[in-house]
Amino acid sequence: MPDNPVVHRPRAVVIGAGAAGLFAAAALTEFADVTVVERDVLPEGPEPRRGVPQARHAHLVWSGGVRAFGALLPGLVDDVVCRGGRLVPIMGGMVSRAPNEVWFRRFLATHHRNLVCSRDLLDSVVRDHVLKDGRITLRQGATVLALEGDARRVTGVRVRDGDGTGTGAHLLRADLVVDASGRGSRAAHWLAGLGLPRVTEREVDAGLTYATRLYRAPGTTADGDFPLINVQANPAKAPGQGGVILPVEGGRWIVTLGGTRGGEPTADADAFVPFALGLADPLIGELLRDAEPLGGVAVTRSTANRRRYYEKLRRWPDGFTVLGDAVAGYNPVYGHGLTVAAQGALAVRDVLRRTALTAPGTARALQRAAARPVAAAWDLAVGQDAFYPGAADAPPTAVERLLARYVDRAVATGARNPRAMGALLDVMSMERPATRLFSRDMLVPMLFGPRKPHLAGPPISEAERRAARP
């Protein structure tokens, strides 16, 4: 009898070992052997790396992302918590002021939770969970130079060891190439080089500058669940200024301050607390006044919302997909990038469970499926940032202004009604589409519900204030 034929699994190459790339690799292992190509040499533990400069600033994962993390990598969230992260109730574990300057009540009735930790810790845990899979090969310290193939099908990538400036490029063949290389992606240039049309791009730039400083958790705040403090900027009052205190592992606070054009924070350490005290509410500055800083101030100015509409191209090659920040990067203040990365990977997995990875048209289906979470996060971010002066080439349309007024009203309703808050958080957490804001849970309290007065100030208890005193 003849020997049974050997069935070869498809091969996939993922460009980038950031969150989007690793989530994509995890999703693809069900269908292919995966090679991840990363320019950096990755750290062994929760340490910073060159390719993720934004990791120094405050990060959190909304509950839609927490769900996606669990679906992709069971046990990941528990592992983050075991290593010092927290699952924080929204809004029960937060003291938060909305962009329209309404303070949210600390309702405990909703199921929503933020995953809170340093970005270095999260990335380390993700690497540990993904790269232990024997179906994944990591090629670090290597640079992808170009796509191999033509306008009909991508068949691999050209790779050079090191930073891409040397010689000796070689070919990595693949049935699917996924570009998850982040904001600096060259996918649009590569596709144009294959003869494909130029992709449509849009940028909305509020002109936000971030400044972040690490502090030792003051007083006894490291001993308990001290709330997140979040004072959001108001787009109606430019320059928009705000900040966040994120209590993280290791008895530390990550404090990130932000300001748009004309009101930017600086790298001057002596100006950090005065900037926080000068916000529309001085709570963050008051909590920092006697806290001990751990190092200097890190500043980032690359915060524009930038989207490439790959899913709308008239022609798309088989064997190629773009994910994560390579498709769209968002103003980090909204905290949706990690959620989109995980939900995009889930979208890839869902498509491949219905359609063969190597089938004609699969790559286009992947690109369109991954665009759905991108669009949801984009609308949330741009719906605010478009109102800052100079943010976009054209001012907001009448429809955009009408929707913004409705969202402000929805926020005001959610701030004093737990039922409406649940609907609002379903959307903000990227668990449900924006149409949830027009559900009975929102409309009934908005139109007919009891109208509690808005809070006169931040809902932080005196005991919490005392805990933060040295």
Neighbour order of strands in the largest sheet? 5-14-15-16-13-17
- Stated plainly, the CATH topology of the largest domain is called FAD/NAD(P)-binding domain
Q: Which CATH-level-2 architecture of the largest domain?
A: 3-Layer(bba) Sandwich
Structural class: alpha/beta
Strand count, sense and barrel status of the largest sheet are: 6 strands, mixed
Number of beta strands: 20
What is the H level of CATH, i.e. the homologous superfamily of the largest domain?
A: FAD/NAD(P)-binding domain
Q: CATH first level of the largest domain: which class?
A: Alpha Beta
* Gyration radius, rounded: 23 Å
General shape = globular
Q: What's the tally of helices?
A: 13
The helix content, as a percent range, equals 25-40%
Strand content: 15-25%
Distance N terminus to C terminus? 80 Å
- Poorly predicted runs of 5 or more residues: none
Mean pLDDT, to the nearest integer, reads 93
Count structural domains.
Answer: 2
3D architecture notes:
The chain is of the alpha/beta class. The chain folds into two domains: 11-52 and 120-203 and 305-382, FAD/NAD(P)-binding domain (3-Layer(bba) Sandwich), CATH 3.50.50; 86-118 and 205-304 and 460-467, D-Amino Acid Oxidase, Chain A, domain 2 (2-Layer Sandwich). It is built from 13 helices and 20 strands. It has helices at residues 19-28, 63-72, 76-82, 119-131, 187-193, 272-277, 283-288, 337-352, 362-385, 398-414, 418-428, 440-447, 462-467, and strands at residues 11-15, 33-38, 60-61, 86-89, 94-97, 113-116, 136-140, 142-149, 154-161, 170-173, 176-179, 201-204, 209-216, 228-231, 241-248, 252-259, 292-300, 305-308, 320-322, 328-329. The chain has a six-stranded mixed β-sheet. The chain has a five-stranded parallel β-sheet with strand order 7-2-1-11-19. The radius of gyration is 23 Å and the shape is globular. The model has no long low-confidence stretch (mean pLDDT 93).
